[in-house]
């Protein structure tokens, strides 16, 4: 998010961790525990919650949604708007309309080596992002959405958007890169940039970072050290040193917190819900425990290139055979609601007018019969060729919640005559390579976290399927290709009139529910376990992590 550790190995590991942990952490040092270690360090290549949580202390996006779910500026001085004269419709030479949107970089913004952040960096970032071999996750933003960038001066630039977008002011995924460090690396071999970037080869170079903190030490798979960035232009960061430890076994992660080896476990990549719930009941008086409902969609991505899963009847049967209501009650005390679609009811664009899948084993059996899996041998369905209905099921090894959920799902599917084989991997492998290169053979359990009203283009558009040809760009790990969905996603960007926009959102959710390219499970409420002596941490409930506002955290007197 490896096989599970044997009991003796785990016990020995815990003893070593407990012996090495200090009794109390110094107040000028904050030690944070995560259940994942980043697979890479580039801000625009490979999405992973643990990576972005750490990087959010070292960088600031131009725009982002805040804890109130409102778009705001962090690296820019003000959001562009038509009223302010910094955004305007324009007609290009080909007769098509788009937006010209102007931003100004904060006048004091500098890279950690003292080099000013300028429009040269902006132009270079666009050059990299639109290159077909760069491997950027949201390559569409750079290669399709942005058709031009004009540098007005060293700090001011105008982006020309390909369409008259409803969200013209938002450039959340435009993660500016340091041209003075990265340009020579990129120009030498664009196809190898993802491996040769200084983010991978020289991670502690201060010139890569420009937030309140910079990365000063990395022990791969173990920990990262952050220290104040002297060129940071905002309020003084609260800690002299932040150590982020990765402990992929969540039982060991909790043990480290209780022993004093950790100060906090954030919700972005921390304890599973039910483990945190038990923790709160036992130790809630010693910690501040916040369960933040939000736009976190726990689901199972299906590899639609698998001939078994290519049949929509099989996909629907798999969902009908799962008692998600019982899972929510028994594992999560109904505090993590069943997901019937990929759009959360907390989001303004959610609708209810789509197909739902209640727990219905009889209907599941009927669909499997129709799909050619009517005979059973030894309790497992087979087709006319005698092939078993057998599927591989993957998730992040060491995540107790997901591994328990896997076992429940495996048992329920076995009752439906479906054999499920579990093959889990450490998070850095699962996210860094398996999903990224679509190596999952059948089913992959994980979560997407998004911003409010996020158009899921990178996950559902047919152009966003990662392949070797596009250097594994995009997040459509399912291989979902649906022309109507493509058109809805395209139209959602520019159809801004409320009633028409709602109709498009309705159709998107209907297509998803009819086709089921992934299996929706539940919407997470992520648990943040914080020390009593810290204040100012406000979970957002969406993809922007609490670390984006770390300069507002305070040590209580």
Please name the defining characteristics of this protein.
557 residues, alpha+beta, five-stranded mixed sheet, four-stranded mixed sheet, disordered N terminus
Q: Round the mean pLDDT to the nearest integer and report it.
A: 93
Derived from helix and strand composition plus strand pairing, the structural class reads alpha+beta
Going across the biggest sheet, name each strand in turn: 15-14-16-11-17
Q: Looking at the structure, what is the overall shape? A: globular
Strand content: 15-25%
- Measured as a percent range, the helix fraction is 25-40%
Ranges where pLDDT stays below 50 over 5 or more residues in a row are 1-25
Rg, nearest Å: 24 Å
The beta-strand count equals: 19
Which sheet architecture does the biggest sheet show?
A: 5 strands, mixed
Number of helices: 17
What is the CA–CA distance across the termini? 37 Å
Would you kindly provide a written description of the structure presented here, covering whatever features stand out?
The chain has 17 helices and 19 strands. The protein has helices at 7-20, 49-55, 119-130, 139-145, 179-188, 193-196, 198-201, 250-259, 273-283, 312-320, 324-332, 361-370, 400-415, 427-435, 457-460, 483-492, 498-515; strands at residues 29-34, 63-65, 71-73, 87-91, 97-104, 146-151, 156-161, 213-219, 223-228, 241-246, 287-302, 375-377, 380-382, 390-394, 419-422, 443-449, 518-531, 534-535, 554-555. It has a five-stranded mixed β-sheet with strand order 15-14-16-11-17. Strands 1-10-9-8 form a four-stranded mixed β-sheet, covered by helices on one side. It has a four-stranded antiparallel β-sheet with strand order 4-5-7-6. Helix 3 (119-130) runs parallel beside helix 5 and helix 10 packs antiparallel against helix 12 (361-370). The two termini are 37 Å apart.
């Amino acid at each position: 998010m490896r096989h599970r550790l044997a009991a003796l190995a785990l016990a020995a590991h815990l003893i070593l961790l407990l012996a090495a942990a200090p009794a109390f952490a110094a107040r000028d040092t904050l030690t944070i525990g995560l259940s994942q270690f980043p697979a890479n360090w580039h801000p625009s290549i490979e999405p992973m919650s643990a990576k972005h949580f750490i990087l959010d202390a070292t960088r600031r996006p131009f725009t982002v949604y805040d804890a109130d779910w409102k778009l705001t500026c962090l690296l820019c001085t003000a959001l562009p708007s038509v009223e302010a004269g910094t955004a305007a419709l324009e007609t290009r030479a080909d007769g098509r309309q788009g937006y010209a949107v102007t931003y100004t970089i904060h006048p004091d913004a500098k890279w950690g080596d003292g080099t000013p952040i300028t429009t040269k960096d902006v132009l270079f970032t666009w050059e990299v992002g639109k290159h077909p071999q760069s491997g950027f996750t949201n390559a569409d933003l750079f290669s399709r959405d942005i058709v031009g960038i004009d540098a007005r001066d060293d700090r001011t630039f105008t982006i020309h958007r390909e369409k008259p977008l409803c969200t013209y002011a938002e450039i959340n995924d435009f993660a500016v890169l340091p041209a003075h460090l990265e340009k020579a690396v990129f120009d030498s071999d664009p196809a190898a940039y993802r491996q040769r970037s200084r983010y991978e080869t020289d991670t502690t170079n201060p010139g890569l970072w420009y937030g309140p903190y910079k990365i000063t030490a990395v022990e791969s798979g173990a920990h990262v050290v952050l220290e104040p960035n002297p060129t940071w232009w905002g309020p003084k960061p609260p800690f002299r040193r932040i150590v982020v430890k990765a402990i992929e076994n969540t039982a060991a992660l909790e043990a480290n917190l209780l022993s004093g080896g950790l100060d906090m476990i954030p919700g972005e990549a921390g304890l599973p819900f039910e483990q945190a719930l038990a923790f709160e009941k036992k130790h809630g008086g010693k910690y501040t425990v916040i369960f933040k409902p939000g736009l976190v969609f726990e689901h199972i991505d299906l590899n639609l290139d698998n001939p078994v899963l290519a049949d929509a009847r099989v996909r629907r049967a798999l969902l009908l055979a799962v008692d998600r209501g019982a899972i929510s009650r028994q594992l999560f005390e109904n505090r993590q609601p069943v997901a019937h679609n990929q759009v959360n009811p907390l989001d303004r664009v959610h609708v209810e007018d789509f197909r739902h899948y209640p727990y219905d084993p009889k209907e599941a059996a009927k669909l499997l019969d129709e799909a050619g899996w009517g005979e059973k041998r030894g309790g497992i369905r087979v087709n006319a060729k005698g092939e078993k209905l057998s599927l591989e099921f993957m998730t992040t090894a060491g995540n107790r919640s997901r591994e328990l959920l896997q076992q429940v799902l495996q048992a329920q599917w076995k009752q439906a005559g479906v054999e499920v084989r579990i093959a889990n991997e450490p998070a850095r492998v699962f996210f860094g390579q398996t999903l990224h290169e679509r190596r999952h053979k059948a089913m992959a359990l994980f979560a997407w976290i998004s911003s409010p009203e996020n158009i899921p283009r990178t996950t559902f558009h047919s152009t966003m399927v990662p392949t070797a040809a596009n250097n594994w760009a995009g997040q459509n790990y399912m291989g979902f290709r649906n022309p109507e969905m493509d058109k809805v996603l395209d139209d959602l960007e520019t159809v801004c009139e409320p009633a028409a926009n709602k109709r498009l959102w309705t159709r998107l959710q209907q297509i998803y529910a009819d086709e089921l390219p992934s299996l929706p499970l539940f919407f997470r409420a992520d648990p943040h376990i914080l020390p009593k002596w810290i204040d100012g941490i406000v979970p957002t409930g969406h993809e922007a992590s609490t670390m984006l506002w770390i300069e507002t955290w305070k040590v209580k007197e």
